[in-house]
Structure formats: structure tokens, C-alpha cells
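Please, structure for the following, as C-alpha cells.
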Amino acid sequence: MSTATDTPKNIHQGRNVKRFREMLGLKQEALALAMGDDWSQKRVSLLEAKEIIEEDILAQVAAILKVPVEAIKNFDEETAIHNIQNNYDNAVIHGGPTVNYNCTFNPIDKLIELFEENKRLYEQLLASEREKVELLKSKS
């Protein structure tokens, strides 16, 4: 039985460089300028047409684009679209993204603390009112 991992993917590294460059809003001229004096827009265009890019050039491009070399080597558009589609489908089916809410305290304990604080404040207010009453009694 063949699976997706059994079949080798034809990943076009040049197209991946183009995709990452475009995602960053970088023009070919800007990439050529960052690559060095011996690079031109035409040479970047030819680079993006190559299926396999030399390791040293790939490392230089990855550093300029601030992405890992593995991202350029392994990015597969079909897989990305598949993942996005599945995540969208799960969001629709389950009513939205799942929220992993890990409460670090017991909400009931916090509620009891609030009631205790409210009770303490009420007793202070009551004591203050009793003092006022005693003062008024002593003045009359």
C-alpha cells in the first residue's frame, strides 16, 4: 500500500524561493542587490526557474529571506493547501477554533475569596456605623 510518504515529492526550490520572496514583498531586484554585486534581476529570475539550487546559494538566499533552508527545500504547496483546508473544515465542523484553556486556579476558590472579602468589608462598615451610633448617644 503506498502512502504520501512513500512517493518522493517533486519540490521546486526555485519556485519556493519565489513564493517566500513574494510573501515578504521583496522584488527580484532587491533580492539581487542583497545577494551581491555579481547578481542581477535576470540572474534571480533564472535562479527561481531552477528546480534544484546549489547549497551555498540556497543558504545565502535563506539568510536574506530570513527563513530556514529546510523551508525552501521542503515547502510543498499541495500540502500547505491541504493543511489550510483541513483546518478550515475543522473550524467549521467544530464551531470555531478550539481553545485550550488551562485554568491555574480553582474558580470556586476565587468566588469564596470574594464572598469572604465582601463579608469582611460589610463587618467593617457595620462596626463603623455602631461607633457613630455610640458617639451620637454619648453626645445627647
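The first helix runs from residue 13 to 23. The CA atoms of residues 126 and 132 lie 10 Å apart.
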